[in-house]
Amino acid sequence: MTGETDLRTLLTTMRPTLNPGRYVFATVGGDVPQGVRPVVTVAEEEGLTLVLPQPDADAAGLAYDYVAAWITLRVHSALEAVGLTAAVARALAAAGMSCNVVAGFHHDHLFVPYERAAEAVEVLEDLARRSA
User: Fold this and answer.
1) How far apart are the first and last CA of the chain?
2) What CATH number did the domain enclosing 126 receive?
3) 126 CB contacts (<8 Å, ≥6 apart)?
4) What is the dihedral of CA 10, 80, 74, 9, to 10 degrees?
C-alpha cells in the first residue's frame, strides 16, 4: 500500500489523534528491561532510547525528564513525502511548543509536552483547515 506524497493532501487529511496516556523518553545501556513496552526504540551509539508509557518507566526505575503526549497523524504518509514534518513542526513552533517526530511505516507520530496536548491538536487541526 503506497502512502500519500502530496503535501496539501497530507495536511488537509492528517486527522491528528491524541493517544491516551503519558509518555517519556529514557535510555538504557542494553536490552529493553523486562515488563517495559516501548512504543518507539532508537538504537544510538550512547545507548537504546525508549519512548514508553510513564508508568512502565516508573515501574522499571528508568530516569526521564520530559513527559509527553502522543499524537498520531492518521493520514498514511509516504516515507518519501516532502514537507509534512516541516509544516507540522513550524505550526507547533509558532505556538511555542516542542515536537519530537517519529515516522512509522503508515503514520507520523508526534510527542509534544503533555500539558499542552489539547492545544497541540487544535494547532494541527487549524493547520489542516488552512491548508484546504
Assistant:
1) 24
2) 3.30.2130.10
3) 91
4) 10
Angle at 60 (CA atoms; ends 55, 63), nearest 5 degrees: 85
Q: What is the pTM of this model?
A: 0.95
| Domain limits for position 99 | 7-131
The model's pLDDT over 28-52, given as tens digits with 9 standing for 90+, comes to 998 999 989 999 999 999 999 999 9
3-state secondary structure (DSSP) of residue 23: strand
Burial of 54 (0-12, 13-18, 19+ CB in 10 A): middle
Residue that the C-alpha cell 515501574 belongs to: 59
Q: How many residues does the chain have?
A: 132
Strand partners, 18: 71
Structural domain contains residue 1 = no
Distance CA 35, CA 54 (A): 13
